[in-house]
Structure formats: C-alpha cells, structure tokens
Automatic annotation (TrEMBL):
Upper lineage: Bacteria, Pseudomonadati, Pseudomonadota, Alphaproteobacteria, Rhodobacterales
Gene3D superfamilies found in the cross-reference section: 3.40.50.1860
Entries under Pfam families matching the protein: Asp_Glu_race
Protein name listed in UniProt: Asp/Glu/Hydantoin racemase
Regions crossing the membrane: none
Coiled-coil residues: none
Species of provenance: Pacificibacter marinus
GO molecular-function term, one example from the UniProt record: amino-acid racemase activity
Length: 242
C-alpha cells in the first residue's frame, strides 16, 4: 500500500483510555527510533483510530461473543482499508485474531493485522523467558479456549494471580472510575507482589495505566511492546521510501 505514507491503525473502545495510551506510547517510541534526528510533528506516526464503545462487551466475552464480534467486524471493515497495519488496544479482543485474519482475506486492499499474542510470543522467546507471571482480565487469565494467550502455553508457562476475581474487579474499576481514582495503584501492587514470578506480564491494557514499580518484579507492558513493533515497522517503511 504505497499510495500514502505508512499508516498505523488502532481499534479502541475496550477501553478508550487504552487506545489513547497506545497512541501515546507510539509517539514515545517514535522519538526513540529517530533519536536526535527527530523533527517533532513531521516525524510523528500517521495514525488512524476507531473507538467503538460496544467493544466493551468483551469484559464478559463468553456471554457476549456474538455481539462483540459484530461490533469488531464492522470496526475492522472500517479501519483496515485506511491503514498498512492495525492492532486492537485490548488483550481480550485479540482472541478474535484468527477470525479477523479470515475476514481480511476476503477484503481487497487492506492493511495487515498484528495481534498482541504474536508480539508477546516474540518478545518472551527472544528474551529467553519460559516462565512468567500473567496479570489480565478474567477471559485472558483463564488461559482456556476463550483466552488470546492460551496458544502460547506450548512455549511459555504462565503463573496467574490467586486473586483473579479481585484483579478482574480492579480492571473494571479502572474503566469505571479512571486511572487516577484513589487506591487503584495500591490494589495493583498487592496483587502483583503475591506472584512468585520475577517477570510479570501486564496483559490488560488498563493495568499499565495504574501500574507502579513492584519490588522484586520486572513488569512487561504488552501495550508498550506492541508500540515498539509498530514504530519499528513505520520507521523501516519510511527509510525504504526515502
């Protein structure tokens, strides 16, 4: 797709702040890529964002699969023709990755879809991590047929939080009250500290919004990993076109 500058797409809505967070991280990672050569606005990434509120149904994916897919289907159809590559700013919704790819295969002149699980698998295997902690919303952390990360278990052993209900409620509270609500960061630290794993994956886009350092833990923000990969692709495409 060479008729316009390289364009990144973000599907948001579950939640809106997660999409904003990913966009912000794209800007930071772009500055890192360019280093001292960064010119500000002119070198910022070209981004298309579609935020669909109905994607919030994914918090109970098992009960809302049909309605969630209907919302995601029309959102993918809207954004895919406008971009070179796109992502969904929600770990849970990446469960639909095979269905999204099947849809894209039927559409002409559309961008590529980059899944969170593909990015995380590459990051963890390249770093040599075979055992990590996993903090996520209920559908993801269950690591069953409804989890986007279930497929990674052949290579990665995940330790999940004992307080799964508390964690799911924490994520819902971030969505309801916003990231600056009193007590959210402390609740996060308490849950993360109880994991035995030294490396902990933040596999919910709400968690990086409230995460603060946890003693003895290395936190890996999947959103930031995705931003790094998207930025690398955009930077490489720009260098090739020059």
């Amino acid at each position: 797709m060479t008729h316009r500058p390289f364009t990144i797409g973000i599907i948001a809505g579950s939640g809106p702040e997660a999409g904003m967070d990913l966009w912000s991280k794209l800007l930071v990672q772009t500055q890192n890529q360019f280093g001292t050569a960064f010119r500000g606005d002119l070198d910022a990434p070209r981004v298309v964002i579609v935020s669909e509120p109905e994607l919030g149904l994914s918090m109970d994916l098992r009960a809302n699969e049909a309605a969630t897919w209907a919302a995601l289907d029309r959102t993918v159809r809207q954004i895919a023709p406008q971009v070179d590559v796109f992502v969904i700013a929600c770990n849970t919704l990446n469960w639909f990755a095979p269905r999204i790819q099947a849809l894209l295969d039927t559409l002409p002149n559309v961008g590529q879809f980059l899944s969170f699980q593909a990015v995380l698998h590459q990051v963890l295997t390249q770093a040599g991590h075979s055992h990590v902690g996993l903090l996520a919303a209920g559908p993801v952390m269950a690591l069953d047929n409804w989890s986007a990360y279930a497929e990674l278990q052949s290579d990665i052993e995940f330790e999940t939080a004992n307080q799964s209900e508390d964690l799911h409620l924490l994520i819902e509270d971030v969505k309801r009250f916003g990231q600056k609500h009193v007590g959210l960061a402390a609740r996060f630290r308490s849950i993360a500290q109880n994991l035995s794993s030294e490396t902990v994956i933040l596999a919910c886009t709400e968690l990086p919004l409230i995460a603060t350092p946890v003693v003895g833990k290395t936190l890996i923000d999947v959103t930031d990993c995705v931003a790094q990969m998207l930025t690398f692709r955009a930077y490489r495409a720009r260098k090739v076109s020059v």
